[in-house]
User: What shape does this take?
Amino acid sequence: MNLREIILGAPKKRELMACDMETVVKHDGRGIDFTPDIHKGVKVCRDILTSDEGLVYNRRWLLERIQEFGLAYQDWSLLEHFNHWRNTSHFGLQQFPTEFADFLILLARIAPKNGVEIGVWRGASSYVMCAVLQRITPEYQHTMIDIADGVFAFEEFSDILNLKKAIPSTSTDFRGQEFDFVFIDADHSYDGATTDYLNLGRYAKKIVAFHDIHAHEYDHLNGGTVRTWREFKAANATTMSILEFAHSPVPWMGIGVGIKQ
Assistant: This one.
């Protein structure tokens, strides 16, 4: 299998949302009860919130928390080194673990007071990001935007996290609003990702981030997220610090960050 086949064969996030939403109350699309994975995730977030001072800056400790929280079940060969981190259900993180850990440490150091995530899927990334940022800034508020409510266990996590669920909605509904932190991970077409940046990302007061900056499986969508990220870097390199977290053995996933000076 060549590189192109590997990249194009990587499943897209929405493919894992094919389960009947009536059964999502307790089971995912494979008929697996996700309740144990939810309980585990809540425990991890509570452990982060009550952790000793400075632990959220410790990469090894964060990776251990990410492993305990678990990755959403998938069969992606590019994550085979983390197969033992998978949950049995489709609830869990859809992130390259080491990329996400380094990104979380950066976020913790910047310490935004509020943030918005455009495209939240099951909510797992929202929960972990909010826990880390709330540990640094207890009043931190995290707004979750998506076009459809596929979020798992919002009530359980919102009992301990400062979460606001704005679903169904899009970035257009929040156009021009200012948040300290904006995370773009929704429509992976060039036009969709760029619109999310123009609606909210460019108004971020401290940091704007994009997921899937090397996800070439979306290149057919007018250049996809790869093109959006490339153009963002070209337009903002003189006014922002630009960082990339890209750890896959071949170009895939990746988190791109612009930090305002």
About this structure: The longest helix spans residues 35-49.
